[in-house]
Amino acid sequence: MIDRPSPNFDERRAAIDMLVLHYTGMANAADALARLCDPAERVSAHYLVDEDGTVYRLIGEDSRAWHAGLAYWRGARDINSLSIGIELANPGHDWGYRDFPAAQMAALELLARDIVARHAIAPARVLGHSDVAPQRKTDPGELFDWARLARAGIGLWPAPGTAPLDAPTFEPSARAPEVAEAQRCLAKIGYEIAETGTLDDMTAAVLRAFQRRFRQSRIDGALDPETVARLGEVEAAFARGSAKAPTSSHGRY
Predict the structure, then answer these.
(1) Is the pTM of this model over 0.90?
(2) Strand 47-49 to strand 126-128: parallel, antiparallel, or no bridges (unpaired)?
(3) Could you report the per-residue pLDDT of 114-131, keeping only the tens digit for each?
(4) Which residues belong to the active site?
C-alpha cells in the first residue's frame, strides 16, 4: 500500500457501517490521483486501487472522505459519514469502459475483506455508487464482477433463477400492480424511490441501477419478467444479509 494523502476530508458524523465502490472515470490512475488530491476539486476517497493491483491510501478511515456526494440508502443521506469509499481505476463509460483486471480485483478483495471484517459491515451494506446515487452515477458499472466479490465474502450476489427475456414490457404511463410491487421491492432493498405505481423517469433510473448490478446483460430500465424475478431474489437476499459481519482486529492491510 502506498500513502498518497489527500486534503479533501472532514470529520465523520456517524459510525462506519457501509462500503461504497466506485470507478474513477478518468483516463488513468495518475490523473485520478491528482484530482482526488487536489483541494480545488473537493472530491476524494479513502483508497484507490490501480489496474495493476497497487493500492493507494488517500485518507484515514476515521475521517469522512467526499466520494458519495448527493446520495441515499435506506433512509440515510450522509453516506460519506457512514461509509468507506474505494475508487477503482477504470476509464468508465465516458472514456472507454473496460473489464476490471484480475490483479485489480484480487487487490480489492484483500482490501475490502479487511475493511468489512474490521468494521463489521453487513453484506447488504456493500454497495456501488450507482446504488446510492442512481439518477447521477453508473459506477462501478455492469462490467464489475459483484459475483466474484460475494464469493470472497464481500457483499451479496443472490443466485439468479430463470425467467424469459422476450416477454413484453410495461408502458411507462401504465399503472399496474407489477410496477407498484417493483417500487416496493426497490425501496425495501434500500434504493430511494417514490412509490407512485407508475413507471416514471425516477423508477426507470433506479431500475437501470438495479440491472447494472444484478442483471448485467441488459440495462434498459424496463420492467421485464427477468427483472421482476430478480427483484424478488435480491430483496430476499438483502433481508438475509442485513446482519452485521463478525468483527476482526487483524486485517491484512
Answers:
(1) yes
(2) unpaired
(3) 999 999 999 999 999 999
(4) 87
